[in-house]
Write a structure and sequence with these properties.
495 residues; alpha+beta; Beta-Lactamase; 3 domains; 14 helices; 16 strands; 46% helix; 23% strand
Length: 495
């Protein structure tokens, strides 16, 4: 809706008839108020919108009709008017006779006489505000659905709630072990610096976080008589009043969200309801993140167990079967000169078979857990992979030192699986493996000049590779147009 038109009626005694008609017939809400805060006159549209009669309007201070949450800034606006200044597009809520609430958008102008009447015109913008609330909820829901990181959700939600509730600051925090509480995110014009977030504050005393934990319900309070470490935090921000509601995750109190102001403010149940609607979405984001975290931990245990099993099998093959075959071959060689001539060809075939079995076991052992990786690190191990590949592979390793063992093993198997896929599917004539180190991460790139068209959604090899990368806290991307494929993996350098 556009801005309401101003109407300067002046005093009720000097209006012309056509002005009286305009006042009575206008669809917008019109009123005259006195400097002591009473309605002098309201038009029929005002009566229809809010349900009171003119006699009821003029009998009480106009602030009594204003929603408790909006009385403080309405008083501030009235002072601006009575000081002789105009006011445009000011919004507040009025309580109707039936208890419902209407949002009004005002344009007001003081009369020509100092200290005289003030003329006001308002539009009912309740539907607009409802749509605005719904839009805020949709934006929060979108952030929850698209952002895997709770920190991003918290930051976005804190900003939305500050705007939605006209709060000077909003805070999201978590209950920690040891009866402590940590603020994780903040929003609003009084947005606190990140240095003030993240500290564990002791619960106890009289403050919102402690009250919410005790009751498990939304709470509001004045900070004037608050106590405890959390109250001290609020005093650093010069806060005077606030409201908070618990964040419930899987039936337990995970944390709480707060809206606060540096002035005394009456907190209505409607404000708590609006805050609770947002918090329900925050709880969904936390639950999703915790479920994802549990899944990653479970997959990490599976991968770690698999790596350990491979190491054990490789060790058993090397120390057991392979050594027994070597011993058997040596014994056979010791009797080579005593073999009758007619058994020479058979002896040669048996010895060749033993050597082939040893070579097969050696190759199998390398694939399970290469000894060169444990002994010499990534560079030699990847070059050995390249040497055994069925196509030419260039290997460029530019890292200093050795990363954590599970990261090192992860890089090795990423390259091994990628080269296997190239050999099976790419029809490539050449591949390139590059391993570089950047700030806190190892970048692995495997590219080929094959036919392209690789797709993460097809085939278990790439999906299994992505699972291993994600378990290690890394990311994987695939670029495979109609010609050539490049697989890029980023892994942390440490656990």
């Amino acid at each position: 809706m556009g801005e309401p038109a101003n109407l300067d009626i002046g005093s009720s005694a000097g209006n012309h008839t056509w002005m009286e008609d305009l006042f009575d017939l206008a669809p917008d809400l019109m009123c005259l108020s006195t400097i002591d805060g009473y309605f002098e006159r309201v038009n029929p549209a005002f009566e229809r919108a809010l349900g009171y009669t003119t006699d009821e309007f003029v009998a009480r201070p106009l602030i009594d009709f204003v929603h408790p949450d909006d009385r403080e800034h309405t008083r501030t606006a009235m002072k601006v008017l009575f000081d002789g200044h105009e006011l445009h597009q000011f919004e507040n809520r009025y309580i109707c006779r039936d208890g419902s609430v209407r949002w009004l958008q005002w344009s007001c102008r003081p009369g020509p006489d100092p200290g005289g009447l003030v003329a006001g015109v308002a539009r009912d913008v309740t539907d607009n505000v409802t749509r605005r609330d719904q839009a805020a909820l949709r934006r929060v829901a979108t952030v929850v659905a698209t952002s895997p990181a709770p920190g991003d959700v918290f930051t976005a939600v804190a900003a939305e709630v500050a705007e939605l509730l006209d709060a000077d600051i909003t805070l999201i925090g978590r209950y920690e072990p040891g009866a402590t509480f940590t603020y994780l995110a903040a929003g609003g014009p009084m947005h606190t610096s990140s240095e003030m977030l993240g500290d564990r504050l002791l619960l106890g005393g009289e403050n919102l976080a402690t009250k919410i934990l005790r009751s498990g319900q939304p709470e509001s309070m004045s900070y004037d008589n608050a106590s405890g470490a959390i109250a001290a935090f609020a005093r650093k921000l010069a806060l005077r009043s606030g409201v908070g509601t618990p964040i419930m995750v899987d039936g337990r109190i995970w944390g709480a969200m707060f809206a606060a102001w540096p002035r005394q403010r009456d907190i209505s149940s409607e404000t708590m309801d609006r805050l609770s609607q947002i918090v329900e979405l925050v709880a969904v984001a936390i639950l999703n993140a915790e479920s994802r975290g549990a899944l990653v931990e479970s997959r990490a245990r599976v991968v770690a167990t698999g790596d350990e099993v491979r190491r054990r099998i490789g060790r058993d093959l090397h120390d057991g079967v392979q050594q027994r075959l070597v011993t058997l071959a040596l014994k056979m060689r010791a009797y080579e000169t005593a073999i009758p001539a007619e058994l020479t060809e058979l002896f040669t075939d048996v010895m060749s078979g033993l050597e082939e079995i040893q070579n097969d076991i050696r190759e199998l052992s390398r694939g399970i857990h290469p000894a060169v990786l444990a002994r010499s690190g990534l560079g030699p191990a990847l070059k050995e992979l390249a040497r055994r590949a069925p196509l030419p592979v260039d290997v460029l390793v530019g890292i200093s030192g050795r990363p954590a063992e599970r990261i090192e093993v992860g890089v090795y198997y990423v390259v091994a699986e990628a080269l296997t896929n190239v050999a099976k599917h790419a029809q490539a004539s050449r591949a390139v493996v590059e391993v570089d180190e950047t700030s806190g991460a190892i970048l692995v790139s495997v590219s080929d000049d094959g036919v392209g068209g690789a797709d993460l959604s097809r085939g278990s090899g790439l999906l299994g590779l992505r699972d291993r990368v994600e378990v290690l806290g890394g990311t994987m991307s695939l670029n495979s147009p109609s010609s050539g494929t490049t697989l890029v993996v980023e892994l942390p350098t440490s656990d």
